[in-house]
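Dear colleague,

Thank you for sharing your sequence with our group. We've completed the structure prediction you requested, and as agreed, I am returning the results in plain text so they can be pasted directly into your records. Please verify that the sequence below matches your submission; if there's any discrepancy, let me know and we will rerun it promptly.
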Amino acid sequence: MAKNCLLVSAGWLLTVKEDRECREDWAFLIDDGTITDIGPRKDLNAKYSTSDKLALNEHIVCPGLINCHNHAAMKLMRGLGQGLNLDDWLHQAIWPFEREHLDAPNVSLGAELAMVEMLMSGITTFSDMYFFPETVASVAERLGLNIQLAVPIISLDTRWARGSEECIHRTLALHDLYRDHQHVSVAFGPHSVEALDLETLEKIGMYADELDIGIQIHLQETSGELDRALKNHGHSFVVLLKKIGLMNDRLQVVHTVHLTSEDKAILAETNANVIHCPSSNLLLGSGICPTRDLLDLGINVALGTDGSASNNGIDLLSEAALAESLIKGVAQDASVCRASNALDMATINGARALGLERQIGSLEVGKDADFVAFDTRHPAIEPMIDPFRSIISHSGARCISHVYAKGKPLVENGICVNTDLADLMEKAADWRASKAFREISERAYY
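Please find the predicted structure tokens below.
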């Protein structure tokens, strides 16, 4: 046993193993960032009496949360284009602003603000699809988060790259740079089927197969997108992606709000992963993902917050609570989904979607020590009846006291440890006083 071992005890331990049981008065040993033992607290305390200890005896402890879809730097655009549906929101508000204002320093600022918010709400791993991904990765490394760079591929010229071909070359270079990296993995991030030609999508599929890495793509987010697919191709974009060989267990399809029966069957048959972003879909008026149908078909459904510009926050526990409520509400049956199922979507399902289920997503021997602790003495939890229900709520994040990733503290007693919050807030204030931000304020409501 190494000298840097830490024994963590928990009043209520939600391991997110298959039995979905709550273990009372349990503990786990961390050795060099990995969980090496787990069991009743009294047994482990006797077994490892000389280890450093973190006593969370009045806390609920669960795995670190996994946010499978975000555009972190869009934190700087929160509120831009409110009241617009998705297509108008992108073309009239978001893309013009990005072309004018989103350079690497601003992306760094927006990403850090978003990551601090994520950490404070229990997120230890996230997937990011945004320009200047190397800048975002650098911030994530400094703060200690795990990140999948779903490197954006779009035919438009941006401040980061000119056209889809350069985007692909940059993705390949980033994959080489971060190969076997401890905190950073790389996937292809084609924006959408309509944003690229079929030749480019086929090329992305070829490279992804060759390198054995993931692809994340926005898919059938609006009814208009599905209608255009049916009109122009005679079938959906789900069918199209299957035809060109992109549908497999490494594919991460984001949103999937509008699906045909054939689409659902294809998703199940190919083991593709669905990333459900309920708040964003509702705020943009896109609709409601048929999550219950997907889960009933055995499809892996994980959660994403999407960017702050289309969500107004980055709270995955709220997304989990909303996802559960939508399943019950659409079914008109309160028994069809439980809080433990919602926690699965925010943890182990996310790990599976990102191809990281052997490393993260549950608290088990051999996995990374990524975990979140909730103080049950907080008024938002007390009195506690059900630990799962206590954290899967719109107030769960405010009860977080500790966040660890790979056995290292990222939040202690509610304080984010790897950033100078005062300095970050000063930079945010400078942004708020800038000409660019004033333009956002003037265009926030259409």
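Summary note from our side: The chain has two domains: 6-63+367-413, 65-353.

Kind regards,
the structure core
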